[in-house]
Amino acid sequence: MPLALLALAIGAFGIGTTEFVIMGLLPEVAGDFGVSIPTAGHLVTGYALGVMFGAPLMTVLGTKVSRKRMLMLLMGLFIAGNLLSALAPAFGVMLLGRVVASLAHGAFFGIGSVVAADLVAPDKKAGAIAMMFTGLTVANVVGVPLGTLIGQSIGWRVTFGIVAALGLVGLAGIARLVPDMPKPEGVRLRHELAAFKNVQVLLAMAMTVLGFGGVFAAITYIAPMMTHVAGFADGSVTWLLVLFGLGMVGGNLVGGRYADRALMPMLYVSLGALAVVLALFTLTAHNKIVAAVTIALIGALGFATVPPLQKRVLDQAHGAPTLASAVNIGAFNLGNALAAWLGGLVIAAGLGYTAPNWVGAALAAGALLLAFVSAALERRDKVTGTVLAGSVTAEQRTAVSS
């Protein structure tokens, strides 16, 4: 794998850390600014909304710029947002800093996926995408716990200052290691938008929303589920999330490896197994050891879908994949928000802390169904194309003989 992928992975590590570390630092931030925990929670919501809307917006704004330069500009925006958060004199300013940093998130992963895939041979594209996303998964194992510890021990502002420094390292790496890769000639914004007329692109994005949404339906409520149902102590939630992150790392690498060999079968296996494991989590959540194993499996199976789904979008939006790739990153966050909301509804309805697992299982099963539909449509199109090609050939033979 090219060293340029390391630079992309470092940038992904910083972005992954800043996205999730705030969850462990909400009490400290709320206390410093004199706001309630729910109000401080807007820092999470604001970031998610920024990713959703920023992904297409920043990608469209970057259509006139080379991909390498756009990646550098996005890292600059990420650094500025985290510095603003670290130095914020008021809560509103910190919220602005979070939104500024989030604007870089979707476009970075979207454009980065295209760049990573272009750096390697066609049969290694999903593996290259997985290598970049490794930075995001490792952030959940190392960056988030370490950032939380630093924030609780020294101060949350130090954490965001360190994240900004990580952004500088990522920026330097991209400038030094990523080759200058200009946009393909003749590709305009209308070509990028035309990708959304392709039903296969839309199906892949819908699979992204439902598939990873299934993961977040369960993981969003992991703390009350593990403390009230499994009987873990409050302090155990941190290492359970580390276990989830380790599963993500492994699943990401496996998904990237096998998606290059058999993309759709990889999706069938990972989505089907994810639906089963999430359904079983309703039962396994009552036993500490089995619950811990299940959490790792959810992380592994959930992230095993990421490289193949991202590659699926790139393949189907061939010729002008940048905007579609970025929007698919926003689809992950849309799925997260939708799943968290649905999970909250079933808990509020009095169905218990394990009820979101059924929601997650249903979402993952829905993604699996869409995968079968997508494959069926693809087979039909191939048969139709073969028939049409045969008809044209027959007409040509008739014309020649005449």
Question: What's the gist of this structure?
Answer:
The protein is mostly helical and 402 residues long. Helix content is 84%, strand content 0%.
What's the structural blueprint in terms of helices and strands?
Blueprint: H1 4-33, H2 37-40, H3 42-61, H4 67-87, H5 91-118, H6 125-153, H7 156-177, H8 189-194, H9 199-219, H10 222-230, H11 236-259, H12 263-284, H13 288-303, H14 306-316, H15 322-348, H16 355-401
Helix pairs in contact: 1-3, 1-5, 1-6, 1-7, 3-5, 3-15, 4-5, 4-7, 5-6, 5-15, 6-7, 6-11, 6-14, 9-12, 9-13, 9-14, 9-15, 9-16, 11-13, 11-14, 12-13, 12-16, 15-16
Main location: membrane
Transmembrane segments: 42-61, 73-96, 102-121, 128-150, 156-178, 199-224, 236-254, 266-283, 289-309, 330-352, 358-377
GO molecular function: transmembrane transporter activity
Written account of the structure:
- One of its GO terms (molecular function) is transmembrane transporter activity.
- This is DHA1 family inner membrane transport protein.
- It is found in: Cell membrane.
- With 402 residues, the protein is mainly alpha-helical.
- It has 2 domains: 1-183, Growth Hormone, Chain: A; 188-402, Growth Hormone, Chain: A.
- 84% of the residues lie in helices and 0% in strands.
- Helix 1 packs parallel to helix 6 (125-153), helix 5 packs across helix 15 (322-348) and helix 11 crosses helix 14 (306-316).
- The longest helix is centred in the last third of the chain and has 47 residues, at 355-401.
- The chain is globular and about 60 Å long.
- The mean pLDDT is 84.
